[in-house]
Automatic annotation (TrEMBL):
This is Histidinol-phosphatase. Pathway: Amino-acid biosynthesis; L-histidine biosynthesis; L-histidine from 5-phospho-alpha-D-ribose 1-diphosphate: step 8/9. SUPFAM superfamilies: PHP domain-like. PANTHER family: HISTIDINOL PHOSPHATASE-RELATED (PTHR21039), HISTIDINOL-PHOSPHATASE (PTHR21039:SF0). Belongs to the PHP hydrolase family. HisK subfamily. The keyword Amino-acid biosynthesis applies. The keyword Hydrolase applies.
């Protein structure tokens, strides 16, 4: 079984390739399931005033969903497409987020924390903000937001749960207890997380999350799915063989997949 549950496409403004190119690439690679999971449109900041290319405009969302379902039908004999959304968690905007999640028949919704207030901690154009802040404080705020995201009940799994390490900024003080609290909240919510392989091509130089966190997930029975976070068709499923091998090595025997918001475990 080869699946990829975290992908983007040209609509978001910082990825290349049409949805159909990802589907064709998935077929070429022999994926059994392909999850389409583009970014939720910006809600809490004015897209016209913010940095460009953050996410698809709100009016594109219905077109994205419609196209994804059309492709699922068109290619159903060759690949099993699952239609998802990488839903941001933004504190204070829960009602608006819930409205978007309720409005479409998603197979799954990923809960990702990118924003701390108006700062997108995953945007390479906003790295200067680290200079204004205490790294431990940033990690602490980030993991607090992850816990809140888990408690909303909006999401099927948390995306790149330790993405705060992405650019290599690390507090001197240990952050393991913050990571553990976030995983406890995931466990309490009965959610899964993903092993997001894209960290391997970033300054963090390791997948999201760390092996230590994966081992805790295994110990605590938190299910894992996998995703490449591809922003170009050529990167579809990139490093996922490594991701699957790592999970096996740790002792996982199944992967989480999602259909109409139901989790289905498949043999790894
Ligand atoms: Zn993106
Ligand atoms: Zn993300």
């Amino acid at each position: 079984m080869l699946i990829d549950y975290h992908t983007h496409h040209v609509r978001c403004g910082h990825a290349s390739g049409e949805l159909e190119e990802y589907v064709q690439k998935g077929i070429e690679l022999g994926l059994t399931q392909l999850g389409l999971s583009d970014h939720m449109p910006l809600l809490h900041v004015d897209p016209a005033a913010y940095l460009p290319g953050m996410a698809m405009p709100m009016e594109e969302l219905p077109r994205y969903v419609e196209e994804a379902f059309r492709l699922r039908q068109k290619y159903k004999e060759q690949i099993d497409i699952r239609v998802g959304l990488e839903g941001d968690y933004i504190e204070g905007w829960e009602a608006e987020i819930e409205r978007i999640i309720q409005a479409y028949p998603w197979d799954y919704v990923i809960g990702s924390v990118h924003f701390l207030g108006e700062w997108d901690i995953s945007d390479f154009r906003q790295l200067d903000e680290w200079k204004n802040r205490d790294a431990y404080e940033v990690y602490s705020q980030y993991y607090d937001a992850v816990q809140k995201a888990a408690r909303t009940g909006f999401y099927d799994y948390i995306g790149h749960i330790d993405v705060i390490k992405r650019f290599g900024f690390k507090p001197e003080r240990g952050v393991e207890h913050l990571e553990n609290e976030a995983l406890k909240a995931v466990k309490a919510a009965g959610m899964a997380i993903e092993l997001n392989a894209s960290g391997l091509r970033m300054p963090a130089n390791e997948m999201f999350p760390s092996r230590r966190m994966l081992e805790l997930c295994h110990e605590w029975g938190i299910p894992l799915t996998i995703g490449s976070d591809a922003h170009q068709p050529d990167r579809l499923a990139q490093y996922l063989d490594q991701a699957a091998a790592l999970l096996k090595e740790i002792g996982f025997t199944e992967l989480a997949t999602f259909n109409q918001r139901k989790r289905i475990m498949l043999a790894l």
